[in-house]
Design goal:
By secondary structure, this protein is α/β, with parallel strands linked by helices. The protein has helices spanning 17-27, 36-49, 67-75, 85-93, 110-118, 128-137, 175-184, 203-216, 247-265, 277-280, 313-317, 405-415, and strands spanning 6-9, 12-15, 31-35, 55-60, 79-82, 101-104, 122-125, 142-148, 170-171, 188-193, 227-229, 270-273, 284-296, 299-304, 323-325, 333-339, 348-356, 363-366, 387-392, 395-400. The structure holds pyridoxal-5'-phosphate. Pyridoxal-5'-phosphate is lined by residues 60, 63, 81, 104, 195, 198-199, 231-234, 274-278, 371.
Length: 417
């Protein structure tokens, strides 16, 4: 064990270059490193920003399902937004209680419905025919309903999960059909839910989506409500020059809106949020080594020992991830394509990026790699996923190891018939 030297950058706690370099040296690359103290800070500050006594934060574990992170947040009293039966099982194994987990399933099969129901969690359903099926199989159950708030927001089209072009949610105009289904199957609607999109940079859009949901959340339509869940979508800066959203004032606006709503509803309800990115994105770094440099015509390539199966967001979403040359942070600036080791030309973490001079064997850190990076990973080209390190209170520990080539092949053969 060695101590994690914590530095400050852009007002947020970041792990220092020296510490990250020590991690790369000690554990090898590619490797993920997460700053547990920052995860805790992001979780806790939500309670300062949103002054509502019945605020609950359900961590969207799809963002990063490492059990050590789940346990860390569980110890703080977080709940879980789960989207598959296996996510529920993992959350339960990490110490969460059934009543701390909300199951928001897309395209739910009958089998998954039975599995999740046996696990004892509350369902959040967003499709009329699925409500009907659920009601026929489990009449008289409690249920949460996901509506489409008819607002388009999110940092790219692939993660905008509301509005006319989205496959998610029950349309607000389908309210009367929903009420009929609820009555037919004697369901008790205890919660209403929206998730408008990921990385929403305009808080006014989030507030509008909340207002749209609250308009239908009347005691006449839904007399048994215990909570309203406004989903995830809280954005964090990915570019060093991007400004942080003022969540303190956004939080006050949410609480004021919700306070007025609860007065009209006649009861103080729970206000739930389901952030993933906000809690873990900034905590993570993917460290990789530059294996070769190459000049092709005009372009200068810095090729690394990682690739898009380890961190797919730039390839999938054209997402910007800031990359730091830990080994030569003050070198003279040059322009690089920083590429992976996968057999596809598109396998690039950054193109035309101005960076301090890169040399072979330099260690690069891809920042904001805590959310939707490891969890979206895969084994394309059969290179194992990197190990994961978590730092907490100035100490680091490996919380998931990588696999050797032999182990990787053995696990494939074991599944193949
Ligand atoms: C239903 C639901 N809730 C919460 C989230 C978390 O979103 P974010 O990580 O942007 O906060 C997602 C992300 O896809 C989601 O689908």
């Amino acid at each position: 064990m060695f101590r994690a030297a914590l530095g400050y950058l852009s007002g947020a706690m970041h792990l220092s270059n020296e510490f990250l370099l020590q991690c790369a040296k000690r554990y090898g690359t590619p490797i993920y490193v997460y700053n547990g103290d920052l995860i805790l800070q992001r979780y806790r500050e939500l309670f300062e920003f949103i002054p509502w006594p019945k605020l609950r934060v359900l961590y969207a574990m799809k963002a990063n399902y490492n059990p050590a992170i789940l346990t860390l947040l569980g110890e703080q009293g977080a709940g879980i937004d789960a989207v598959s039966p296996a996510e529920i099982v993992l959350a339960l194994k990490c110490g969460y209680q059934e009543n701390q987990i909300l199951f928001t399933a897309n395209n739910l099969t009958a089998r998954e419905m039975h599995v999740a129901h046996a696990l004892g969690v509350l369902f959040n359903i967003d499709t009329l025919s699925t409500i009907d099926r659920f009601g026929r199989i489990f009449p008289g159950s409690d249920l949460c309903l996901r509506f489409n708030p008819n607002v388009v927001a999110g940092d790219n089209a692939k993660v905008q999960t509301a509005g006319e072009a989205s496959k998610f949610g029950i349309l607000l105009s389908e309210l009367s059909t929903v009420k009929n289904l609820v009555k037919t199957h004697d369901l008790r609607i205890v919660g209403l839910h929206i998730h408008t999109g990921s990385g929403i940079k305009n808080p006014r859009k989030s507030l509008k989506a909340m207002q749209n949901l609250l308009e239908i959340a009347t005691p006449e339509n839904f007399p048994d409500l215990q909570f309203i869940d406004f989903g995830g979508g809280l954005a964090v800066p990915y570019h060093p020059e991007e400004e942080r959203i003022d969540y303190a004032s956004f939080g006050k606006n949410i609480a004021a809106l919700f306070g007025t709503f609860c007065e009209n509803y006649g009861r103080e309800l729970g206000l739930y949020l389901e952030p993933g990115k906000y809690i873990v994105a900034e905590s993570g770094y993917l460290l990789m080594e530059v294996t070769s440099l190459k000049n092709n015509q005009e372009r200068r390539f810095a090729n690394t020992d990682s690739g898009f199966p380890h961190l797919i967001r730039p390839v999938l979403y054209d997402a910007y991830h800031h990359i730091v040359n830990l080994s030569n942070p003050h070198g003279s600036l040059r322009t690089y394509d920083i590429c992976g080791n996968i057999c596809e030309s598109g396998d690039c973490f950054a193109s035309g990026r101005s960076m301090p001079k890169i040399r072979e064997e330099d260690i690069l850190a891809v920042q904001n790699a805590g959310a939707y990076c490891y969890s979206m990973g895969g084994l394309y080209n059969l290179r194992a996923m990197p190990a994961e390190i978590l730092t907490l209170n100035g100490k680091e520990r490996m919380v998931r190891r990588s696999s050797s080539e032999e182990e990787l092949v053995e696990s494939i053969l074991a599944e193949c018939l």
